[in-house]
Amino acid sequence: NAGVTQTPKFQVLKTGQSMTLQCAQDMNHNSMYWYRQDPGMGLRLIYYSASEGTTDKGEVPNGYNVSRLNKREFSLRLESAAPSQTSVYFCASNGDPRRDYGYTFGSGTRLTVV
Amino acid sequence: AQKITQTQPGMFVQEKEAVTLDCTYDTSDPSYGLFWYKQPSSGEMIFLIYQGSYDQQNATEGRYSLNFQKARKSANLVISASQLGDSAMYFCAMREGVRTDSWGKLQFGAGTQVVVTP
Question: Among A114, B32, B46, B108, which residue has the fewest nearby CB atoms (within 10 Å)?
Answer without folding.
Answer: A114
